[in-house]
Amino acid sequence: MLSEQELTPELISTGSYALNKVISGKYNGGVPIGMITQFIGAASTAKTVFGTHILRNAQKKGYYTVIIDSENAYNPVFARTLGIDPNKLIYAAPPCVEDCFDTIEKIINSIRTDDSDTPIVVFYDSLAVSPSKVEMEAEGYEGNNMIGAQRAKQIGAALRKINPILRPKNVAFVIVNQVRTKVGVMYGDPRTAAAGGNALDYYLGVNLQTSKSDVVGDKESPTGIRGKVVNKKNKLIEPFKVCEFELMFNEGLNPYYGLLPHLERDGIVERGGSWYTVKSTGKKFQSAHLKDLIESEDEGVRPIIDLLNEE
User: Fold this and answer.
1) pLDDT of residue 111
2) Which of 160, 203, 195 is nearest to 177 (CA)?
3) Which of 100, 127, 232, 300 makes an SS bond possible with 195, Cβ 3.0 to 4.6 Å?
4) Is residue 89 packed enough to be buried (19+ CB in 10 Å), middle (13-18) or exposed (0-12)?
5) Average per-residue pLDDT in the chain?
6) What whole-number distance in Å separates Cα of residue 140 and Cα of residue 55?
7) Where are the domains of the chain?
8) What is the percent of the chain with per-residue pLDDT over 70, rounded to a whole number?
9) Nearest in space to 209 (alpha carbons), one of 172, 252, 249, 179
10) DSSP the chain
11) According to the CATH classification, is domain 9-255 in 3.40.50.300?
12) What is the pLDDT of residues 39-74, one digit of tens each?
């Protein structure tokens, strides 16, 4: 019976409390194990960084971590900067999309021969870059619409095969995708997914669209970026929630950025001008000081600290 099924998935933090809340309804939640999560957006909108933070937090829990690096851009220095242990990260860079999915399946099955329970987190960066086998074997560099259609067909077939094994084998599958602009669109949104065709949308458990809104520091020499994430599809809680994020290039994500609007909606704090007040303690602070107050475990913000640590 459905009532006897375990339908509450384990969750892995994204590195942003606000995004965790948007995805799972829990500040200490995150992306689900047993489903496919997609980060899709233009270049330099923190997609790979979100995936790296998910891998880092999975490693902290003792989970197996895997990266499929079709962009050939991932390296140990970048990984260590964001807290990844490269010695515990399984790495593969297959040449085409069919080989990528085949490698993922082989890695999952190999792990499950020795360990039947420990969750596995697979990060595919990125689906948009992986060519199909037909493209790899074609002569010259001129593409056509049929090659694109064949690639979408192959991705659809691969998803049909891999999606049913994610829940029983305790796997979180996180995909990075890119957006393209349709030519000649005068009405509606001209953006479209670069890979996967229409099939991918049906298989996603969570679909997160990232965008950049500003840079941090000097525009000529920025130290980070700010942006927002829109939850376009969600099988955990209600979709279309939005949060903001801040990425510092030498530190990673600011876990507290974008948190206050959600705390305000939940009735934990109230806002008056540029000041916030914790309702239950009367502690007043400005948004720039929230991180320091939480990390110093100031008793005035104890209700926020407890909420962020709540299981």
Assistant:
1) 98
2) 195
3) 127
4) buried
5) 90
6) 37
7) 9-255, 259-311
8) 90
9) 179
10) -GGGS-----EE--S-HHHHHHHHS-TT--EETTSEEEEEESTTSSHHHHHHHHHHHHHHTT-EEEEEETTS---HHHHHHTT--GGGEEEE--SSHHHHHHHHHHHHHHHHHH-SSS-EEEEEE-TTTPPPHHHHHSSSS---HHHHHHHHHHHHHHHHHHHHHHTTTTEEEEEEEEEEE-TT--SS--EEESSSTTHHHHHEEEEEEEEEEEEEEETTEEEEEEEEEEEEEESSS-S--EEEEEEETTTEE-TTTT-HHHHHHTTSEEEETTEEEETTT--EEEGGGHHHHHHTT-GGGHHHHHHHT--
11) yes
12) 999 988 999 999 999 999 999 999 999 999 998 888
174 within 8 A of 121, measured Cβ to Cβ: yes
Structure tokens at 256: 């507290």
Gyration radius of the chain's alpha carbons: 20
Is 50 exceeded by the pLDDT of residue 286? yes
